[in-house]
Design brief:
Elements: H1 3-26, E1 37-42, E2 61-68, E3 80-88, E4 92-100, E5 117-123, E6 142-148, H2 149-157, H3 163-166, H4 185-188, E7 202-207, E8 214-215, E9 222-228, E10 231-239, E11 254-263, E12 275-288, H5 297-316
Parallel strand pairs: 1-3, 1-12
Antiparallel strand pairs: 2-3, 2-12, 3-4, 4-10, 5-6, 5-11, 6-7, 7-8, 9-10, 11-12
């Protein structure tokens, strides 16, 4: 083999190895058809109530396509892409969901108003197989964390809006039966939609198929969302271990499945009218989260510099053409 061929082959191998190393360190995938995976590594001081904090930009993410829900009427939803991040601190897990929405819809004060919303869904603790992603099924239940922009506004205000808030020009009389549960059955039965003093913008729900969605009040399930420049970001949090029937049990160094749903209030979406992403893998790792996405810009530049020097050395030794 001539010196030219030997050095040409070495140069090709060096460049290919350098590209492979950079793609590996930056987490870049060349095949879009690969199965999406959401990885949660361990970190400290997670800003659960600051969705736009720079901390989240360093947390591994997964881009997930959303499609219209067509399984059960009235269908609805639209095709778009959402981004999910996940991290844990050894005691609790945190999931940040981000998606585009031109206008924030936070009101449900009128019959024609619908709230923006998002939900994160897991197989329940008793599930031995991946359930149907639309509400599960009788043999494989699901655990759902459901956040709504209208609840977020109520929590941020620390009180529910009144009729006078909805209709400033209306005359409002005192309600004579405010303390009688017979005239407030929703609140009396614990319906979370009727709760006038919410402590969380997210509800904890369990289901075993269509028509079986049931609230399972669990104060440890929290959600906090903020809209900025045409995008929603919502952070869900919950202790890794729940010790409740129908609730997913999470542990470090294990994995489960997770699915998502998004509602656009401006499009009159509610109930089954939503956009959905099917189950993907959530891998909860005991390894610590490294800042700057696990490698950092300076580290990437150092790798590129080394490989440029190697390639230059190889090229400098090639015989010059006569």
């Amino acid at each position: 083999m001539t010196p030219w061929r030997r050095r040409s082959g070495a140069l090709t191998l060096a460049l290919a190895s350098g590209v492979a190393l950079v793609l590996t360190l930056t987490g870049t995938r060349l095949a879009a058809s690969q199965e999406a995976m959401l990885t949660a590594r361990q970190a400290e001081d997670v800003p659960a109530r600051a969705p736009w904090d720079a901390f989240w930009d360093d947390v591994p993410s997964a881009d997930l396509p959303l499609s219209a829900q067509t399984v059960t009427p009235p269908n609805g939803g639209r095709g778009l892409t959402m981004t999910a991040h996940a991290v844990h601190d050894g005691a609790a897990v945190y999931v940040l969901v981000e998606w585009s929405d031109p206008t924030p819809d936070r009101s449900v004060g009128r019959t024609e108003d619908f709230s923006d919303a998002v939900a994160v869904q897991f197989p329940s603790s008793a599930t031995t197989q991946v359930p149907a992603f639309c509400m599960g099924d009788p043999t494989a239940g699901v655990n759902i964390w459901h956040w709504r922009a209208a609840w977020q506004r109520d929590v941020a205000r620390a009180t529910a809006p009144t009729v006078a808030d909805r209709y400033p020009g209306a005359a409002v009389d005192e309600y004579p039966f405010a303390d009688d549960p017979a005239f407030a059955p929703g609140s009396a039965l614990g319906n979370p939609v009727s709760d006038p003093a919410r402590s969380s913008a997210a509800d904890n729900l369990v289901a075993n198929g269509f028509g079986s969605l049931t609230p399972d009040p669990f104060a440890e399930v929290q959600g906090w969302g903020e809209w900025r420049d045409g995008r929603w970001r919502v952070v869900f949090s919950r202790p890794l271990e729940a010790s409740r029937d129908g609730n997913v049990e999470l542990h470090a160094d294990t994995w489960t499945d997770v699915a998502f749903a998004v509602w656009d209030g401006a499009a009159d979406e509610r109930d089954g009218m939503k956009s959905v992403a099917t189950f993907v893998t959530l891998d909860i790792e005991p390894d610590p989260l490294v800042e700057d996405g696990g490698f950092g810009e300076w580290g990437l530049l150092a790798v590129l510099g080394v490989w440029i020097l190697v390639a230059g050395y190889i090229v400098s030794g090639l015989p010059r053409a006569r």
